[in-house]
Amino acid sequence: MTKTILNDVYELLNSIGAVRSEGEFSTEWLGRSECYLRTLRFKGSDASVGAVAICASKLQHYGKRMLNTEQHSELGKQFLQLSEQCHKLINIKSTAEWLNVC
Predict the structure, then answer these.
(1) What string of H, E and C letters represents the secondary structure of the chain?
(2) Distance between CA 44 and CA 99 in Å, rounded?
(3) pLDDT in tens, 47-76
(4) How far apart are CA 83 and CA 70, in angstroms?
(5) Do 66 and 75 form a contact (C-beta atoms < 8 A)?
(6) Which of 37, 89, 73, 42 has its CA nearest to residue 29?
(7) Is there a smaller number of Cβ atoms within 10 Å at the N or the C end of the chain?
(8) Whether 10 contacts 25, CB under 8 Å
């Protein structure tokens, strides 16, 4: 699996201690099994739109709340920026899907 937005999200969350492992990230932030990222890497596959959407939603949720705090405002901005990147990826993948169907 090539470097993706989900890798960036994982690295940030791991660096701040929000997740301790890829397995925890897969279950808590992607709504998938513990081995999800490892399997993607092994198969050379991209993450599903659903997994990216769950991650985007959670980043947006926490990002908005952190913006309202003095202590975590900058981190909130990072969360929202990553959420926006996830949403862009969702749109790209979704558009490619429905264009191929027609």
Answers:
(1) CCCCHHHHHHHHHHHCCCCCCHHHHHHHHCCCCCCHHHHHHHHCCCCCHHHHHHHHHHHHHHHHHHHCCCCCHHHHHHHHHHHHHHHHHHHHHHHHHHHHHC
(2) 23
(3) 999 999 999 999 999 999 999 999 999 999
(4) 20
(5) yes
(6) 37
(7) C
(8) yes
- Encoded tokens for 58: 């959670």
Query: Of 90, 32, 33, 85, whose CA–CA distance to 60 is shortest?
Result: 85
pTM: 0.90
pLDDT (tens digit per residue) in 12-28: 999 999 999 999 999 99
* C-alpha span between 6 and 14 (Å, rounded): 12
